[in-house]
Amino acid sequence: MNKAQPNIVVVTKETRLKDLKVRFGTPDMARFKLEQLHIHDADRRQAAGEATAANSVATIAGFREYESEARAYDRCVREVRSEADVGFPVKLLDRKMLPTFDFWNTVAVIVVGPDGLVANTAKYVGEIPIIGVNPDPTRIDGVLLPFHASNVRSALQRTLNGKYRSESVSLACARLHDGQSLLAFNDLFIGAKTHVSARYTITQGSCSESQSSSGVIVATGGGATGWLSSMFNMAEGIARHSECKPPARPTLRRGDHRLIWVVREPFRSRQTSADMVVGEINQDQMLVIESLMPQNGVIFSDGIEADYLEFNSGCIARISIAEQRATLVVR
Description:
By secondary structure, the chain is α+β, with helices and mostly antiparallel strands.
């Protein structure tokens, strides 16, 4: 039996325009529906004596932005697919298929941004080199997207020849008592599926307590400027309002073998405490969380709520630095 030929995978995502087409059927219907929404809002504002803007004009301009964004993205995907043709089969993979795709025979992964798509991809591909492409530098920051469609071929050839420079990125891992696990490039969320309080016990080392909160965030270096950053923004705002010294932000880089965990909105009661609200997880440590939620408890990563672990009463999660690391091609 012949050995399967190695392949190159190009990871893409649906544009906002495509999502609107799915929602409304056609671009014209999407434009019409959005215009009607603005017209109804203008009528409501006028009836209430509020100032109104040129809503129909704004809607048309906004819809043109959707169209322009989609054209730029689709053009980049076509160019990347062409540039990636270096002798191996090239497979296009939509973001929704990442959890079920088998990368066992893939030699390189090209991600056509935004940045979050690199984070979504990294936890599924093992240590296969990831080439991040910025499809639209005028709209996307591209922190994890150092390449453009025009230089994909040279980056890919260096990668396949082993002559590339890369950054090794630490991931977080949540492992349940039954062996299920989930990786995170940016952060893990441990809590309730709905807007209700999560109940659990949290343990690190010799310290343990029962808590009720909006959930626990565990951030990697890759996520230090994301959800974790917003937590410190809130703490700094409260400190300024109270005329207190704001807390020092943790220095955490993508390659650091450290994780930062923060409890969101912990609530003190007769049954729950709020002393363990922030901490670090180092290479030889872990955070242990036991669910006290009869239902709707979840663990998800990098903001992808559809790909989650159930975390209901009796489940115990051990949070640690993952053995697997992501490999991002930088040159």
